[in-house]
Specification:
alpha/beta; seven-stranded mixed beta sheet; two-stranded antiparallel sheet; 5 helices; about 35% strand
Amino acid sequence: MRLHRSRRQYPEFPSPGILFEDILPFFADPLLHRSLIRALELHVIDSYGQKRTPDVVVALEARGFLFGPSLALKLGAGFVPVRKQGKLPGATETAAFEKEYGKDFFQIQSDSIKPGQRVLIVDDIIATGGSAAAVGSLVKQLGGTLLGYLFILELDFLKGREKLDAPVNTLLSSQEERS
């Protein structure tokens, strides 16, 4: 798949022992970007059916914002950003999640999801699953119906999907250093 070949990997970034997955090349090439959005759209339709697509696509800051709005538009859904604490105006709901160096917080605007709306959460990569699980809890706090999670890439060895309480779909999986 062209997407798989186009991603870049950076060993030892941002710290020793980390193999950083760079998805930015997907967005530098308009044909590749279009292919990515179409692949995500088809994944959603295949997973949930043409008549049960989400009402709202929720994306995590920051790389989920690169494709979340485009996917929402293709699906005829609204788009809702989830941001780090203190970045959204108005009333918000907050959820904590653990990072490798401590606790962090995500927020969503309190009126962004209506009770009963079908919600799909998207992000670029699922690693440990902690941040996505926090966003899932925010969706439920607002009364949304969580359809599932969609990621471009999964780092399987970290078993992040085990922390999530709705179906998980990914386009690419595993983490193997390429030559």
